[in-house]
Amino acid sequence: MKPSLPSLATLLLTAALTGASAQTAPTTPAAPAQTAPAAPAKPVPAASYVALGDMYFNQGKYDMAYVAYRAAAQLEAQNPRALLGLGRSQTKLRLYGPAIETLRRLISVDATSISGYIALSQAYQQQYVQTSDLASVARNLELAQNVLTQAQTVAQSQTGTDRDLNLSKIWNERGYVYRLQGQITQAIEAFKQANTLNPDNSVVLYNLGDMYYVSGDLPQALNYLQQAVIADPADPYNRAYYGKLLALSGNVTAARPEAAQAAKLAPTNAYAVGQYGVVSYLAKDPVQARTQLNAALRLDPLRYPEFYYYLGRLNLDANDLKAARDALTRAAALGSTNPEYLYYLGLSFERSNTVSPSDRVKARENYERALKLSPNYKLAQDGLNRVK
């Protein structure tokens, strides 16, 4: 009987792990043979390990994908698919140094691998984002752009439909790097280039909408987010973000069904569920807002400081200062570069009730931190003037 995919996967992964451990296990004298030797087992081809790695990677099981891709790379050291999968899984596991080494090796093996260049650029970016010692990765974003320049040279020499598609991917990745470099105008232009080459790609449309929102151009942000929703109606991220921007524009009537639909499409997606909570807060529905924000934070308690911020705002509105301070402290810790989180944290300490007295020292500290990030932040300056 043909084994099922899970059992086959288990056998392959066990073989990979066994093979790895066998390389370091001490040898022992073999016992005298009592029976005729069995026929040697047929070796598992590298392609099978790559397929297994692809399956685990797509399921988000990056540790198991790493083992499978590593086994493939050990069998065939110059297998481009094995090296690409290994490098990507190493990045997901935050093994940035090994990932960069693996992906450099891939490019030396296959200098035409657009996916390899992009993955290497992503490894540089993630190492920059996740490292607290920025001095040690000061050149990472420059290196990420240099890798994309190499990729662009390769893509421009291509012909056929792959050329425009690959150039679109490269420009989209450039946009991410420009954003990390704080170059908002260049990021928008990069995403525009990607959009011109691939006009119906919802990811690129989302990125354009996001960058216009960051730049303060809400109408253009709404325009591109709406196009992203049309391009991929089932994507919860596009719809949830579009719903929030509609609410921020004042159109809560249109925002609420968009946000509700996003949460319905992906009830276990923290982003979609949380943005439904944000929209509910902006629509002055505190019960629904609290339900959705708490649900989102149970799904993912560390990724979205925005949801702690809005939960803090809810508690502040209800004069529950203890809960407000707790939520806003978490928001400010996870989103330490956002002056608005710090301002409202300061406000929560400035206020008082019968349970939570005012703490003007902490209020002043947080107003000052907000002003350090945004010197022209009038609300923070007014708050600081009150508690001096």
TrEMBL record:
InterPro entries referenced in this protein's UniProt entry, alphabetically: Sel1-like (IPR006597), TPR-like_helical_dom_sf (IPR011990), TPR_rpt (IPR019734)
Key words of the record: Repeat, Signal, TPR repeat
Domain of life: Bacteria
UniProt-listed Pfam families: TPR_11, TPR_16, TPR_19
Signal sequence coordinates: 1-22
Residue ranges of TPR repeats: 46-79, 168-201, 202-235
PANTHER family: BARDET-BIEDL SYNDROME 4 PROTEIN, PTHR44186
Protein name: Tetratricopeptide (TPR) repeat protein
Source species: Deinococcus enclensis
